[in-house]
UniProtKB/TrEMBL annotation:
Gene3D superfamilies: 3.30.230.10, GHMP kinase, C-terminal domain. It comes from Oryza sativa subsp. indica (Rice). Its EC number is 2.7.4.2. Belongs to the GHMP kinase family. Mevalonate kinase subfamily. One of its GO terms (cellular component) is peroxisome. Keywords: ATP-binding, Kinase, Lipid biosynthesis, Lipid metabolism, Nucleotide-binding, Steroid biosynthesis, Steroid metabolism, Transferase. GO terms for molecular function: ATP binding; phosphomevalonate kinase activity. InterPro entries: Erg8 (IPR016005), GHMP_kinase_C_sf (IPR036554), Phosphomevalonate_kinase (IPR035102), Ribosomal_Su5_D2-typ_SF (IPR020568), Ribsml_uS5_D2-typ_fold_subgr (IPR014721). This is phosphomevalonate kinase. The lineage of its organism: Eukaryota, Viridiplantae, Streptophyta, Embryophyta, Tracheophyta.
């Protein structure tokens, strides 16, 4: 028996900083970048004395890192003890410090395993299913984790080889590319110790996607949820309840692993897909935070009975619009420190900060409403909608009004321009907030790039995702104009990424994604 589950990365296009506090909402798009978790038994057969075991074995493998960690899992407490690890640096978490002893190989994976096993034990109550669960655990767990290349930055390697900053170069990389580590210090001498990995991340929420994929695969494997019917999920049916349980466990594991209770939009997007998100009350995880995830049965029993008050509403880009992400390569940004500076500004100037947040909230709502309106117009008047977007994709926004020849087309153009205006308002207030808080939410270099992008043919929006900074830019583009924007970005020293919006959340996969990628590659080979 083998279970493969995947979960997507995210892009927060509106609601940065505001989404940290209820009742503010954020617009988050899930992406084509996915983490995969493969769960299978370590042993096919059980020994005659296995019924008396107090521990079982867990092996976690990351082929991209050539790393493997083994654990003992307490069958009574659902807690892990690391027994061996060839992973001295934890890349997937972005924690670059040297590991000493057997402290931890990957807190996100470890918490995902502990919370998932505890959830299975708490929620599986009837005798037959409990016996099946016990057998699965006694067979041991072998977990393999794979992350799409889109989560990682290959810009330095591309530049070092003198290759152009184009999507085609990224496309030439093998799927699930190996992640290499530096072995030099700053002066170029060899240290014999691994240092910061050469491959940085692209800010798509890798830890949330990874945690969610592991939780999803384990909960399905252990018979706690059924991910086979996700297409029919709604809040009231069984599939919807399974997703809600998965969300609660993934949020809990992720928060405990990162040592703080964040807004949770990244995990929510990984579970449910593209959405309008309002955070849960942090108090929901107070018991888990107090115990640090040690009394697993009690913690999980409390978590699954809590009334989770996060709000999610389906949201995705309207038809004939595409998401393009770019990596400027102009330095990194620390989201936690930027958030801390903004919070400090809120305390020091409560009146001004409240005014700014109010204006941002209004502009975010206008943007959401206009995009929803465009979705509705596309549904009700497809021919008019398609005609307008195809035409506007070849024109700068100043000429969009010229394409409307009837009432429906005028409504569509008006909504497009209103969405642009709302987003320009968002950018303005985000810049003001950054200046007031002393952090580069939209640095000048980004502003110049984004302004130039928004003045191109077919561009609806261009901005910095999430908390902003130097790490990434995004654009929402009409029709077939993406290639022109990608070429312009490449010429400006920005690496256009391959990732696109994919509104799906967590998914049960048919098999190992590496097998699928190989099959696709083989089928594309032409023999002359």
């Amino acid at each position: 028996m083998e279970v493969v589950a995947s979960a997507p990365g995210k892009v927060l296009v509106a609601g940065g900083y505001l989404v940290l506090e209820r009742p503010n909402a954020g617009l988050v798009l899930s992406t084509s970048a996915r983490f995969y978790a493969i769960v299978r038994p370590l042993r096919d057969e059980l020994s005659h004395d296995s019924w008396a075991w107090a521990w079982t074995d867990v092996k976690v493998t990351s082929p991209q890192l050539s790393r493997e960690a083994t654990y003992k899992l307490s069958l009574k407490k659902s807690t892990l003890q690391l027994t061996s690890s060839r992973q001295v640096i934890d890349h997937l978490l972005g924690l670059w410090q040297q590991r000493s002893g057997l402290e931890s190989a990957n807190p996100f994976v470890e918490q995902a395993v502990q919370f998932s096993v505890a959830a299975a034990k708490v929620t599986v109550t009837d005798k037959e299913r409990k016996e099946a669960l016990d057998k699965l655990l006694l067979q041991g767990l072998h977990i393999t984790i794979l992350g799409c290349n889109d989560f990682y930055s290959y810009r330095k390697q591309i530049e070092a080889r003198g290759l152009p900053l184009t999507p085609e170069v990224l496309l030439s990389l093998p799927p699930f590319c190996s992640i290499t580590f530096n072995s030099e210090v700053a002066n170029g001498t060899m240290t014999g110790e691994n240092c910061k990995p050469e491959v940085a991340k692209t800010g798509l929420g890798s830890s949330a996607a990874m945690t969610t994929s592991v939780v999803a695969a384990l909960l399905h494997y252990l018979g706690t949820v059924n991910l086979s019917c996700l297409g029919q999920s709604s809040s009231g049916n069984a599939a919807g309840r399974d997703l809600d349980l998965l969300h609660a466990i993934a949020q809990s594991a992720h928060c405990i692993a990162q040592g703080k209770i964040g807004s949770g939009f990244d995990v929510s997007a990984a579970v449910y897909g593209s959405q309008r998100y309002t955070r849960f009350s942090p108090e929901i995880l107070s018991s888990a935070q107090v115990t640090g995830g040690h009394c697993m049965a009690d913690v999980v029993a409390d978590i699954v009975t809590q009334s989770w008050d996060h709000e999610k509403a389906k949201f995705s880009l309207p038809p004939l619009m595409s998401l393009l992400l770019g990596e400027p390569g102009t330095g990194g940004s620390s989201t936690p420190s930027m958030v801390g500076s903004v919070k400090q500004w809120q305390k020091s100037d409560p009146q001004k900060s409240k005014e700014t947040w109010s204006k941002l909230g209004i502009a975010n709502s206008v943007l959401e409403n206009q995009l929803r309106n465009l979705n509705k117009l596309a549904e009700d008047h497809w021919e008019a909608y398609e005609s307008v977007l195809r035409s506007c994709s070849c024109l700068t926004c100043s000429k969009w009004t010229e394409v409307a020849t009837n009432q429906h087309q005028e409504l569509i153009v008006r909504s497009l321009l209103a969405a642009r205006d709302a987003f320009l308002e968002i950018r303005l207030h985000m810049r003001e907030m950054g200046i007031a808080a002393g952090v580069p939410i939209e640095p000048e270099s980004q502003t110049q790039l984004l302004d130039a992008t928004m003045n191109m043919e077919g561009v609806l929006l261009a901005g910095v995702p999430g908390a902003g900074g130097f790490d990434a830019v995004f654009s929402v583009i009409l029709g077939e104009a993406s290639d022109a924007v990608a070429k312009a970005w490449s010429s400006a020293g920005v690496l256009p990424l391959l990732v696109r919006e994919d509104p799906r959340g967590v998914s049960l996969e048919a098999g190992d994604p590496r097998t699928r990628e190989v099959s696709t590659a083989v089928s594309s080979i032409q023999i002359n």
